């Protein structure tokens, strides 16, 4: 009888410990409990009858200002929190830096709306107008590269330079990725766990995994514990559809602003890659080729390539990336 009670007590303690561990790991879908490196402000957006909030950081230069501004557009699986070292490098050289979390991402509203790169570009233009910024260099990473390209196409007069860090969308995914409806993608997103996210990051984003990258997993994986995770998953599915259905690859020829591509040559990112067989996967996402091909399409574009580097140069090789970025500015 005593053994039975002791076993039950141990199981209860384990259950309670597990509950507290999960609670400690939980991240809200608007990242309220994620500390950003600089103060957050909010820009009001009204669309489709909804009042939304677009979070952003506005960081002044730490050295004598050079009068110039750089805007940082994050990738699909990230928010403004992963730009810290780039912000420090830029502000130390006199740049003002604006770091938005796009609607649907980071600390911004997770809205059920029609997601569009055109609409996102317009919101960012309105944000810059509201901040009194007439012209800025736009740096976009991954999905942010698609958005930055759309911004430069729509607002060349506001784009001093277009800077693309391992942008996705260098191929038309509709040509070779099987179509998934937003609802089917939503069901797929619902199966995400912290462990599946870690495995994806390890296999897709970096050439060599380091302990410091666990913070990225903690944030992305933490939202899967949230009671609001289904809303996060629905928005993630909607923005996947945006990427799939709104290619920019055919419009690189139309870019009219100075452009620099920063390419980690070991990157093999393909949106929807898991829907392909291993043989098919080997045919696409070859950034060592795609970077050069894209630079050739953009009038006057320059390219900076990084050896032994994957999808996120500004994290994997921060010093080398920042030197190249500042040199390009």
TrEMBL record:
Q: Name one Pfam family in it.
A: Abhydrolase_1
Q: Which SUPFAM superfamilies match?
A: alpha/beta-Hydrolases
User: Which residue range or ranges hold the AB hydrolase-1 domain?
Assistant: 69-316
Identify the stretch annotated as signal peptide in this record: 1-23
UniProt keywords, alphabetically: Hydrolase, Signal
Among the entry's GO cellular component annotations, what is one? membrane
Q: Which GO terms describe its molecular function?
A: hydrolase activity
Signal as UniProt keyword: yes
Q: Which domain of life is it from?
A: Bacteria
Entry keyword Signal: yes
Q: What is this protein called?
A: Alpha/beta hydrolase
Source organism per UniProt: Pedobacter ginsengisoli
User: Which classification does the entry list for the species?
Assistant: Bacteria, Pseudomonadati, Bacteroidota, Sphingobacteriia, Sphingobacteriales
